[in-house]
Structure formats: structure tokens, C-alpha cells
Amino acid sequence: MVIVISLGGSIVAPDSADGPFLKQCAQLIRSLIEADDQRRFIFVVGGGGPARAWQNAYREVCGDSARDEEADWIGIMATRLNAQLVKAVMAEWCCQDVVTDPTRSEPLKGKVLVAAGWKPGFSSDNDAVLLAERFNAQTVINLSNIEKVYTADPKKDPSAKPLDRISWADFRAMTGDEWVPGKNVPFDPVASRHAEQIGLKVICAAGRNLENLKKIICGEDFTGTTIG
């Protein structure tokens, strides 16, 4: 059983690396592997605070001449730094290098595989979708700093309501199809389009609630939004 987790950079490194969270996460993975030896985990790690800070600095310096592709590469490098940290934390179960091209990934050799951003044009969410397709996973668990998907941005619209479930068509109508580096949406529009095409399910949930993550993995009732 392959479990793909898109681990938002805002969880791993909201401003700087969150060591206590990573320690708790590793303890959870240990317990889940010990409980079921057939489980395999793929973590696809985002850029988080460092990516946004470096991208903002680039745009401030270059102004109107700033290019999305350059901003994307800056974000990608942040994902790779965060992913290398996650790999080191999971070294007991992860014997392969950080994956930076999901279309060329090797067969799973350990219990854990860690991946990072690939190339401009989308976020690491899309890499998670491609890896789920590659390893025949039916679901991507998308962990971020939001507990559920809302009908609108709750910071801007006080009437926004949380959703337990939403179709891909309705979700994409809310988020659009265009990717902009650093875009703040529950799930990358490019990744959403491909996930819908291949019939993939995505569960969005709060990344710091590790007990809730355990419930998702174990098939129990959980707090979050199912897309698809």
C-alpha cells in the first residue's frame, strides 16, 4: 500500500525548519510502519516560508522585470532544501536520494521515499499527483495550514463555509486553472486538472494535526475535505 503525502512547506518550515514537528512526524511514521509492514510512504515536500521570502525578495529587486520562471526556480530550490531535511529525518526508512523528477523515479526500495519540486509551471502538489499515478496510489493526502477547503477565502469572506467533500469540477471552478509561483490555493490548479483526468482523490487536512493524519491513513473518520 503506497500512501502519497503532499507535505506543505508551511508545515515543515513556516519561517524556518520546525524540528519538533518533524520529530513527531517521524514517530508517527514509525508507529504506522510497525503496525503494518506493507505500508510505503511518499512525501512530496513544499517550499514554505523560505520559498515565499526568497521569491518576494526577487520580485522586490527586479520589479516589473521579474519572471515567473525565475520565481518558480527559487521556490523549487526551497522545496529541495526542505525535502533533504525530511529525508535525513526519515533516514532509517529512506534509502534513496530525494526525487526531483517524478517521471523518472526508481522503484521503491525502502519504506519511505521523499520528493521535491521538479520544474517551473506548477507546485510540488503536481509532483505528488504524478508520483501517485506512477505508483498506483488512489489518494493524495494534502497537508497544509488549513483544516478544510472553504467555499471562499475565509479571510476575505466571513460567510465562507468549510466543506467535507467537493467535486473536481466545483473545486477547479473556485481555484481556476492558472499557476502563479507562490499562489495560495488549497491545491495547485495544474495538479488538480491532472488529478481529475486520472480519477485521483485528494484529501486536504491540517498538517500539524498528526492524530488526524493517522485517522486518514487508517481509514477512520477524520477532519478534512475530500476532493473528487
What can you see in these coordinates?
The chain has 228 residues and is an alpha/beta fold. It has a single domain (2-227), classed as Acetylglutamate kinase-like (Carbamate kinase), CATH 3.40.1160.10. Helices cover 42% and strands 16% of the residues. It has helices at residues 9-12, 19-35, 48-62, 68-89, 124-134, 168-175, 189-198, 210-217; strands at residues 2-7, 40-45, 112-115, 139-144, 149-150, 162-163, 165-166, 201-206, 225-227. The strands form 2 sheets. Strands 3-2-1-4-8-9-7 form a 7-stranded mixed β-sheet, sandwiched between helices. The model has no long low-confidence stretch (mean pLDDT 94).
Query: Strand arrangement, largest sheet?
Result: 3-2-1-4-8-9-7
**CATH fold topology:** Carbamate kinase
Q: What is the average of the pLDDT values?
A: 94
Strand content: 15-25%
Q: Radius of gyration over alpha carbons?
A: 17 Å
